[in-house]
Amino acid sequence: MEKKKKIDIRYGVVAFLVIGIMFSYTVLPRPVLEQDENKSWHIIWEGTLAEAAEADPGSGNSGILEVFIINHTATPDTAYAENTSATLEGWCTANNLGYASADDSNIDIAHSTSFDIVVRVRGNQTHCYRTDKFFHTDLRVRITSSDLSIGADTEATCVVTHNDSSDDFIHCNFYEDNSGSGFTISKDSTNEIDNIKFEAYY
User: Fold this and answer.
1) In a domain, 29, yes or no
2) Count: domains in the chain
3) Residues spanned by the domain of 127
4) Beta-bridge partner residues of 99
5) What are phi and psi of 117, to 5 degrees?
6) How many other CB atoms sit within 10 Å of the CB of residue 159?
């Protein structure tokens, strides 16, 4: 009686699975989380400290709201989470410092007081809103000041002060604190902030 030959299909199944997996990696489309290839950084506003003081982005527009020469703090990420301009202005005044608003672009500050530079901005949905929420990483402020030894286009650190997807805007404070040491000026010196850039990635 002739013996029946057994056919071992294990290797065939394994080969089929391997080919199937390779096919899925090479043919089937892969999910893409975010298509950023058409996005780039755009300058929303650029100018000097004096020009920033006079800047008015207008209701609902992205732009610089105010620039503070504010008392240096060891906890900037906490301190600069403050969302009320009047409070920040009060901190400046209390420490013989100042802020650049529409009526004060030439700031007299105490030469013995250590300070940080804080740029308060607003970003709208056009510039930093994706699908259903705001992204503060789509905004940046860069500062240049040869007098204060701030290199060309030094990127300031962002602290989000208001982010609510039900609103039409996000508020952020960007600070430069001289690598945690704060800035000081000598008596009777004049120090310029040469350039401030507010940019958005869209």
Assistant:
1) no
2) 1
3) 41-201
4) 68
5) -105, 125
6) 20
Looking at the domain assignment, is residue 113 inside a domain?
Answer: yes
pLDDT digits (tens, 9 = 90+) for 40-88: 999 999 999 888 888 889 999 999 999 999 999 999 999 999 999 999 9
pLDDT on residue 101: 72
Name the 3-class secondary structure at 188. coil
Task: Give φ, ψ of 58 to 5 degrees.
Answer: 85, 155
Residue 88, CA distances (Å) to 19, 63, 66, 137, 179 in order? 64, 18, 10, 23, 21
In the prediction, which pLDDT does 52 show?
A: 87
Amino acid at 5: K
How far lies 109's CA from each of 87, 135, 149, 195, in Å? 18, 34, 18, 19
Entry pTM? 0.80
Position 172: which residue type? C
